[in-house]
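As a warm-up, study this chain.
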Amino acid sequence: MRSVAFRQTTRRINRLSSLLCVFQLIAAIAIAQNTPGLTVRTELRQNMQTILPAGALGPDDMVEITVSDCPELTRNFRVDADDKLTLPLLSKPITVAGATPIALTEKIRQALIHEQILTDPIVTVSVLEYRSRPVSLVGAVIHPLTFQVTGNVTLLDAIAMAGGLSPTAGGEILVTGAHGTQPGYVQEISAHDLIAGASPSLNLKLYGGEDIRVPEGEKVFVAGDVLRPGMYSMQNDAEMTVIKAISLSSGLAPFSAHTAYIYRRKATGTDREEVTIQLNKIMAHKAPDIALRADDILYVPTSTGKKMATSFLMQMTGVGQAAAGFALVQ
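Now compare it with the structure written out below.
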């Protein structure tokens, strides 16, 4: 009895094996004839690829690769300094050469098929880290920085990431290595026109590799009898005048003289020439305001006459108050 039961069980297993072989043969024919089953598989692969980032890859970028039914290739890889990707099982490295993740996906698929490792692999590639597209922003910004370009990034975006231009920024922004230009070409962009949106073409799209520098603006110096002596920037390289400089220094002090001086560098050498101005008339709008040049020193002396007169009046006021107090006591 046991021998008969054993033979019956064996026959059932053989039938199941035969059915499994038939199903595998039908599946193979369906794939060869491009049946709906293959269409579904192809659509699945395409849908997985459409969600991948589209940025171009380069040296030192890290990618995550997933290959169905192939754990050896399902892990993270970094593009080497020669712009190549070395993968297990493949005899030759894959040249990345600025390919997008979708393009790299197809390169890996074709390599696996060409070397007869897999017949129709489903491959996905996603970017874990960009290192090949740095942009540096230095100079007169709030927070100088270096970042990697991912997605659509413009010059204004970069300035915003740096916290904006500092109050000492000059009127020009210098962009080296702008996309589509010759290597080393420096493009000068008006900071005022860029921020004002005067021309959309000034808001350059950044692709990585650009160096952005915001130079400090020209400066003037205010010294002497003003409330806040110091160095003041000619913001955006706009015209600086005597009245503007006095305003930036918070105004004149109580004992400022009527006459002030501008010390200006001579065209040759390091010496300065002295220019006398009638400050009281300029401040009263009885004389034209005078334009200052970069590196000018505006000096406002103290009027000894004003100071002595004020001191005398204060002393007299003190004597008068003391006499009044004495009379009241009496």
